[in-house]
Amino acid sequence: MRTSSTIRTRRTSKKTARVAAALAAGALTLSLTACGGDDGNGSGDNGSQGGGDKETSATVTLPELDGESLSVAAVWTGTEQKNFKKVLAEFEKLTGAKVTFVPAQDPIINFLGSKIAGGAPPDVAMLPQPGAIKQAVDKGWAKPLGAEATKELGENYSQGWQDIGKVGGKQYGVYYKAANKSLIWYNAQVFENAGATEPKTWDELLTTARTVYDSGVTPFSVGGADGWTLTDWFENVYLSQAGPEKYDQLAQHEIKWTDPSVKKALTTLAEIWGKKDYVAGGATGALQTEFPASVTQTFTGGDQPKAGMVYEGDFAQVNIGETKAKIGTDAKVFPFPAVGGTAPVVSGGDAAVILKDSKAAQALATWLASPDAAAIQAKLGGFLSPNRNLDTSAYPNEVQKKIAEALIAAGDDFRFDMSDQAPQAFGGTPGKGEWKTLQDFLKNPKDVAGAASKLEADAAAAYGG
């Protein structure tokens, strides 16, 4: 998720580019730090087992698929992959089909292209961006959802989440997994020792950071080795500061990256990125730190971790679960503070897209659109579903439950991750475009004009002028 990185292609519909801005003003104002639950780290076997007892109950109607086999490709690794395999295992029990998980590499569109060229595409792929779905359709790879999958999707998803899986008016994607990418997780013991409080505005965040710093702990952990984390930082600042209209315009490259609003957002980011000793390991250390490590190093080392806070989405719970920290007690979270008038919420997601049209592939898409499938992974932690008929009691702790309730409460009023809407060359390729320029800016946050100019040059080339 990923909430991470892969191919990005320009969207043509602004409606489908919205992400839950209402979350910030509404349900996310609920306390996200309620004591609760376990650490959200699921356990169990490492894969689906095939066949098995088909007596398992489900509310969704699935066909008998004895003897059928299919494969599902996704970039998910570690606990995320293990937990998804449990969802696939339940599908096997219900239908008799055999499902193979195919580990994919980023960018997944390139991975799929090589598989298709070799004559061995997976039946279904989990695509992390709306642009990836569009590119798969444009290349003739993706197949529309059938009647049963479309019906299940319509019953369980708001129109907005259906729309972002559409291309040319046809439904291609089931957004099985969502992400709230506007959260800052913190080490509760560090805050307690420092006397720090949860901020609601950017200025308050700077004050909190100073309080943590004065207590002897570096304020922020940044996973700068993964450029997508830096684009997420920028998007949150920009959405709150510049507003949703300009966010949409910049996402479609209808305004330039040299626009004053972009420079203002970069200048704001520099208030943290450019502050001496505010980032664990400095810029050099951050650029060598991948996202998982940026999370775990915030919650290991007792009350003297490498950093007191780490920014990223709800999916960070998977990595927190790899430490001894308990979510809701040791590891707490607050919404990304308001930089402008309204706190931002940026969302992302992973959609199931059919590449080989078959009864089994359509059945799997139908299953993934159901609350039954979502409930399996929800209870394991580190997962957020846009399925509005999923009972939120399935989530393993109060923190995750409130984040999920906030997502559903937003309905269709949302903004999707900006870099996920951009062409791959600009918004989704390691060492290039926005990822590379923001990594360079992390190293030299004084060069606001240079960063904006480079962003615009790369965007113009990627968008075609």
Describe the structure.
With 465 residues, the protein is of the alpha/beta class. The chain folds into two domains: 63-179 and 348-409, D-Maltodextrin-Binding Protein, domain 2, CATH 3.40.190; 183-335, Periplasmic binding protein-like II (D-Maltodextrin-Binding Protein, domain 2, 3-Layer(aba) Sandwich). Helices cover 41% and strands 11% of the residues. The chain contains 20 helices and eleven strands. It has helices at residues 22-25, 78-95, 108-117, 130-138, 147-156, 159-163, 188-194, 202-214, 227-242, 244-251, 260-273, 282-286, 291-296, 316-320, 359-368, 371-378, 398-409, 424-427, 433-443, 448-463; strands at residues 69-74, 98-103, 124-127, 166-167, 170-171, 173-180, 183-187, 220-221, 309-311, 331-335, 347-354. The strands form three sheets. The protein has a five-stranded mixed beta sheet with strand order 2-1-3-11-6, with helices on both faces. Strands 8-9-7-10 form a four-stranded mixed beta sheet. Strands 4-5 form a two-stranded antiparallel ribbon. Helix 2 links the parallel strand 1 and strand 2. Helix 5 packs parallel to helix 15 (359-368) and helix 9 (227-242) packs across helix 19 (433-443). It is globular. The two termini are 29 Å apart.
Topology summary:
Blueprint: H1 22-25, E1 69-74, H2 78-95, E2 98-103, H3 108-117, E3 124-127, H4 130-138, H5 147-156, H6 159-163, E4 166-167, E5 170-171, E6 173-180, E7 183-187, H7 188-194, H8 202-214, E8 220-221, H9 227-242, H10 244-251, H11 260-273, H12 282-286, H13 291-296, E9 309-311, H14 316-320, E10 331-335, E11 347-354, H15 359-368, H16 371-378, H17 398-409, H18 424-427, H19 433-443, H20 448-463
Parallel strand pairs: 1-2, 1-3, 8-9
Antiparallel strand pairs: 3-11, 4-5, 6-11, 7-9, 7-10
